[in-house]
Amino acid sequence: MIDHAVVFKSLVPDELKILRAIENGMKSHEWVAVEDIAAYTGLSEKEVEYRLSNLTNLDLAERFSGHYVGYQLKYNGYDILAISAFVRRDTIHSLGGLIGVGKESVVIAAMGNGDVHLAVKFHREGRLAFKQVKRKREHLLGLPKVSWLYASALAAKREFKALKDLYPAVSVPQPIDCNRHAIVMGVAEGHELSRVKLVEPEWYLDFIVDQLAQAYRMGYVHGDFSEYNVVVSESGVTIIDWPQAVATSSKAADELLARDVNNILTYFSRKYRIKRNPKEVLEKIKSGA
After folding, report:
1. Euclidean distance between CA atoms 266 and 136, whole angstroms
2. For 135-167, how does the pLDDT look when each residue is reduced to its tens digit (9 = 90+)?
């Protein structure tokens, strides 16, 4: 894992230009040739090769040597391009340390206008076997050829839209900005549900069900809900990680909602011995009661 702040500050403008050239070339090529990078940037091939050596050493790009020499972005390089866009837009002013690493994301701290604490979430769709990811993601179905770059950007776009539609009626992180595979959002204050011992678990379970019901009324099913997607504090809960959310009109909505409900009820039953009837909870969510 790179230190995003240190790496970003170390780069010169020509190196950012080269990263953008590789990104552009990857729209049509798996590996982007040095001469194509030079043509895009207006730099000499010698200068490009010198800068690429630094970028590969920083783990931002990867080199391929076969019948030609080519390069492709690594996730770290894609992260840097998104950070560059957020800085240009004045969305963030500084970067902090690592907040967390999920199965398909990395989250780091940042500061925004007025020294507001923010989080930057980088999607990592390619962290799992990519063919498996494609089969399971509604937003990738029907697309014949999808790179990890494009898949991660699609996931971020979907999550950002869901957050914009739901916030603040549903307790989700405040969406601030989105670029490529990255989202800037408000910080979810508290601790992951799976890591705490609740004093009033019944109250928190009711709060969670109410949030799922409100999201359903607004046309959304989370689609990947569990104790790992809930941040709890003394004042309530924040539901995070919405890239797999589906519309309530989707064919998969009922099945996914049932799974979401079963996951959270199973958790509270196992840890707190709280028994709820899944069918009754589902009915409550769908009826809006």
Report:
1. 23
2. 455 544 454 455 888 999 999 999 999 999 999
Residue type, 62: E
Structure tokens at 21: 């050239």
> 4-76 has which CATH code?
1.10.10.10
Q: Is 224 a catalytic residue?
A: yes
- Contacts of 163-168 spanning 24+ positions with Cβ under 8 A: 163/242, 165/218, 165/219, 165/220, 166/215, 166/218, 166/220, 166/242
* Contact partners, residue 287, CB within 8 Å, separation at least 6: none
Catalytic residue, candidates 224, 241, 254, 260: 224
Where residue 129 falls among pLDDT bands split at 50, 70, 90?
Answer: very low
- What Cα–Cα distance (Å) separates residue 6 from each residue in 11, 85, 101? 9, 17, 19
> To which CATH superfamily is domain 92-186 assigned?
Phosphorylase Kinase; domain 1 (3.30.200.20)
For the domain spanning 191-287, the CATH number is 1.10.510.10
For 246-272, the pLDDT digits (tens) are 999 999 999 999 999 999 999 999 999
Q: Which of 101, 14, 96 is nearest to 50 (CA)?
A: 14
